[in-house]
Write a structure and sequence with these properties.
The protein is α/β, with parallel strands linked by helices and about 375 residues long. The protein contains 13 helices and 17 strands. About 40% of the residues lie in helices and about 25% in strands.
Length: about 375
């Protein structure tokens, strides 16, 4: 048999597969209708495992067995997504938990808290998002921001979440998972790090540099060229305040030019970022489960078992519903070896059916699911 004949037979087989696949999807629709009436869950993990094992026994080789299991794993995943599409958010979980509003309530009496001290980039992000006419205060640690919201001391909090050159800010997503807070806004701020010293100091005097771990990472090339000792601090502005108080010419801080002005320090070298287009994303959090009508970003978290294809199947919900995923982060679960919690941000609004279908599927097929927030991210107005 020549190549053209073989290809013709493959085409015939493929047409048959398409016909059978469409028939299978019709039956999946009937299953969805039945589950709507009975209230049964769409995802039945144990049944799928047993079915894959049975199908695998029909194969005539080990290679085909594994291939058939992989093929039907995808077919069953597609079938579930089709059923989620038919049923939608039948339990109205999103409407019961989250309220859509026109815009965030911000008045001169609004209380906002950020981590750090005056001169920190978090303060600048807070001012760029809320403006100067709110009651703002600062705390020492990221978790203190969450505590201030939960205790009612503030209506909003501001936290850094990701830097364009240093990656995700360690621990922030974990805090959002553990605390009852919702992301309701975001802002992207250009971050230009400078090397600061006390008055009269020069670069040749420096032996030790202090800053937040993210800032040290963002300026790694410049700092390592000089071979200085690097010490992590809670915040860039806290580092500036420390060297001002110590008044030691051998100490320097990586912080903003504004911090130099606030703490009467010398700018020894401006803009020492490894990447010149250095930006940090900040999130605005609230203790109210709301989202604005123009919200365009959604962050979620969930955990998955240590099984082949588990993450692949979850990501399929974004593809099937035409949603653009913008970031993914993971952390190991402390009490479950080789299992992970994932944090994913994607574009969309909770009022869209495609978003609701994807969330319904992910919620059903994962553990510890949490919708961290639906919000609109903006750039700082002064850029």
């Amino acid at each position: 048999m020549d190549l053209d004949q073989i290809r013709n037979q493959i085409d015939q087989v493929d047409r048959q597969i398409v016909e059978l696949f469409q028939k299978r999807m019709e039956l999946a629709g009937e299953v969805a209708a039945n589950k709507r009436e009975t209230g049964k869950a769409i995802y039945d993990h144990q049944r799928e495992v047993e079915k894959l094992e049975r199908l695998g026994t029909l194969a005539n080789s080990e290679f085909n067995r594994r291939s058939i299991e992989e093929l039907f794993l995808q077919i069953m995943s597609i079938s579930r997504r089709y059923q989620y599409h038919i049923l939608g958010d039948r339990d109205n979980c999103l409407d019961a938990e989250y309220t859509k509003i026109d815009e965030l309530e911000i008045t001169p009496e609004t209380r906002v808290v950020y981590q750090g001290v005056e001169g920190a980039f978090s303060e600048q992000a807070m001012l760029d998002f809320f403006g100067p006419n709110v009651i703002h205060s600062h705390v020492g640690q990221f978790e203190d921001v969450l505590d201030a919201l939960e205790s009612g001391k503030a209506e909003y909090g501001v936290l850094p979440i990701e830097n364009s050159s240093a990656g995700f800010v360690s621990g922030v997503f974990h805090l959002l998972q553990e605390h009852d807070a919702t992301i309701v806004g975001g802002i992207s701020l250009e971050v230009s790090q400078a090397l600061l010293g006390v008055r009269g100091a020069s670069i040749s005097d420096i032996r030790t540099v202090y800053s937040h771990p993210q800032a040290l990472m963002q300026t790694k090339t410049f700092l390592e060229q000089h071979g200085w000792k690097q010490i992590s601090m809670a915040n860039t502005a806290v580092s500036a305040k420390k060297i001002q108080e110590d008044h030691d010419k051998t100490q320097a801080a990586v912080a903003s030019v504004r911090a130099a002005q606030l703490y009467d320090l010398e700018v020894l070298q401006p803009s020492i970022n490894t990447q010149k287009n250095n930006r940090t994303k900040f999130v605005v959090i609230s203790n109210k489960k709301v989202y604005t009508k123009d919200a365009d970003m959604i962050s979620i978290s969930f955990s998955l078992p240590h099984e082949s294809g588990s993450l692949y199947n979850i990501l399929g919900h974004f593809i099937f519903n035409g949603l653009n995923m913008t970031s993914i982060e993971s952390e190991p679960l402390r009490d479950r070896q080789w299992e992970y919690r994932f944090f994913i941000t994607f574009e969309g609004n909770l009022s869209a059916s495609s978003v609701r279908n994807a969330i319904t599927g992910i919620r059903s097929e994962s553990s510890d699911f949490k919708l961290l927030g639906n919000y609109r991210a903006k750039r700082a107005e002064n850029e």
